[in-house]
Design a protein that fits this description.
By secondary structure, the chain is an all-alpha fold. It has five helices and no strands. Helix 1 (2-32) crosses helix 2 (37-50), helix 1 packs parallel to helix 3 and helix 2 crosses helix 5. The longest helix has 31 residues, at 2-32. Keywords: Signal.
């Protein structure tokens, strides 16, 4: 039993570290495209558990492609950055998470 716990503990700790790193990546990408800090933190805390590293990288590429906060970009620039870099299912997950955060904030 102790041997099993000794083997599982590093895995569990590593999983927590990976989730924290993923959350930071989501937070940075979302802030980079112009979301408010509170919204970015809410979405990041949820997305870090639900999105893969590959999906997170696609969000970062989209944020980098816009090259400015979303509020300063044209609609076409934002749509182009998202459609070029983010898969529809990833986008659906992010929209769902953003909706959850908006609902939580309005309660």
């Amino acid at each position: 039993m102790r041997a099993t716990i000794a083997l599982l503990l590093p895995c569990l700790l590593l999983t927590g570290c990976v989730t924290a790193a993923k959350q930071q990546e989501v937070y940075s990408a979302i802030r980079d495209v112009g979301f408010l800090e509170a919204d970015a933190r809410c979405i990041a805390s949820r997305a870090g558990r639900q999105l893969s590293i590959r999906e997170l990288r696609s969000l970062q590429r989209a944020a980098n492609a816009v090259e400015r906060p979303v509020r300063d970009a044209t609609v076409g620039q934002v749509i182009d950055a998202i459609s070029t870099n983010v898969e529809p299912e990833t986008l659906g997950t992010v929209v769902s998470l953003a909706s959850e955060c908006l609902q939580a904030r309005s309660q």
